[in-house]
């Protein structure tokens, strides 16, 4: 197949010609919001949940998306269809659009809407069987008094630097903590631990994104008999170290076991039985549900 087609403000362009202005606020200031969405077997997983989060993010930072929910939904479906993709990753970006070099948002009239449908692979396939090594980052999770972490905004610099810390330390991923030392999330994933058959994840108010994969995992986990309890509660680095199992999850990463954190082996150093069951059920689920692109 030839070049991928990218949607920009209602038109499709071949990837190499898909360009936006240098005066776009997304480029100048990271002034925008986005979503990462997956397509499994021709079905877009949790499309409406992602769109709802996008509109919430945009509303919170005063970006008025110029398309209705339904129009944007159709544009996403059309982008996947035009590219004839069955398994893909969609990056949907809404920036504040073109303005001048100042900060005044009233000068930006029309947001820029970009939809890219492509592949993404955060970790090599084999590592999903073995599990990854993580570190806790020195960079703190973003604070509501600066920018609400629930707003999926284009400022990922702190997450990018945290990820670099992990790579620089010879690990795969970084876990971000709050100022108080509570575990928040991975650089692009929600986090879960399992202790004494109890599944624990931080509540999003702790400084984490309201992860859509996290929600799906919670739904799945209620049906797994081996899990005796599910709680959303704050926990610390210590709880990570002494957990029986740990995994990260997100749209791009999917479900990935963590077997070492800051040099401490988690459980027996292999993906645990509950994590493996969750991974299995998650894989079964994603191909079943979702918005059918080719119907
Ligand atoms: N936290 C952060 C910081 C993220 O960027 C992501 C990826 N969107 C997640 C968590 C996981 O969210 P989701 O499951 O909705 O992809």
Q: So, the CATH homologous superfamily of the largest domain?
A: D-amino Acid Aminotransferase, subunit A, domain 2
Radius of gyration based on Cα positions: 19 Å
CATH topology of the largest domain: D-amino Acid Aminotransferase, Chain A, domain 2
Hetero groups: 4'-deoxy-4'-aminopyridoxal-5'-phosphate
Total helical segments: 8
User: How many beta strands in the DSSP annotation?
Assistant: 16
What is the class of the largest domain in the CATH system? Answer: Alpha Beta
- For the record, the count of structural domains works out to 2
Helix content: 25-40%
Order of helical and strand elements = EEHEEHHEEHEHEEEEHEHEEEHE
The overall pLDDT average reads 95
Distance between the termini: 22 Å
Q: Which oligomeric state applies?
A: single chain
Largest sheet: 9 strands, mixed
CATH architecture of the largest domain: Alpha-Beta Barrel
- What is the overall shape? globular
Structural class, from secondary structure content?
A: alpha+beta
Quote the beta fraction.
25-35%
Low-pLDDT sequence parts: none
List keywords for this structure.
295 residues; alpha+beta; D-amino Acid Aminotransferase, Chain A, domain 1; 7-stranded antiparallel β-sheet; 8 helices; 27% helix; globular; binds 4'-deoxy-4'-aminopyridoxal-5'-phosphate
């Amino acid at each position: 197949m030839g070049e991928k087609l990218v949607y920009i403000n209602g038109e499709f362009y071949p990837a190499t010609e898909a360009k936006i202005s240098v005066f776009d606020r997304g480029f100048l200031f990271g002034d925008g919001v986005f979503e990462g969405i997956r397509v499994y077997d021709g079905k877009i997983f949790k499309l409406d949940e992602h769109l709802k989060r996008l509109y919430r993010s945009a509303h919170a930072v005063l970006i008025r998306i110029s398309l209705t929910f339904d129009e944007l939904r159709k544009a996403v479906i059309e982008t996947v269809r035009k590219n004839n993709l069955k398994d893909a990753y969609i990056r949907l970006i809404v920036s504040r659009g073109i303005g001048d070099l100042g900060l005044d948002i009233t000068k930006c009239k029309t947001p820029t809407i970009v939809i890219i449908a492509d592949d993404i692979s955060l970790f090599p396939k084999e590592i999903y069987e073995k599990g990854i090594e993580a570190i806790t980052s020195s960079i703190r999770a973003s604070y509501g008094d600066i920018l609400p972490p629930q707003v999926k905004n284009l400022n990922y610099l702190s997450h990018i630097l945290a990820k670099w810390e992990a790579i620089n330390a010879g690990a795969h991923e970084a876990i971000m903590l709050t100022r108080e030392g509570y575990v928040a999330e991975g650089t692009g994933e929600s986090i879960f631990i399992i202790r004494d058959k109890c599944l624990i994840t931080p509540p999003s108010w702790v400084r984490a994104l309201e992860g859509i994969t996290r929600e799906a995992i919670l739904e799945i986990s209620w049906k797994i008999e081996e899990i005796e309890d599910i709680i959303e509660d704050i926990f610390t680095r210590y709880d990570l170290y002494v957990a029986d199992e740990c995994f990260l999850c997100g749209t791009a990463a999917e479900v990935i076991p963590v077997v070492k954190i800051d040099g401490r082996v988690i459980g027996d150093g292999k993906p645990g039985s509950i994590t493996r069951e969750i991974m299995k059920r998650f894989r079964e689920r994603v191909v079943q549900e979702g918005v059918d692109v080719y119907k």
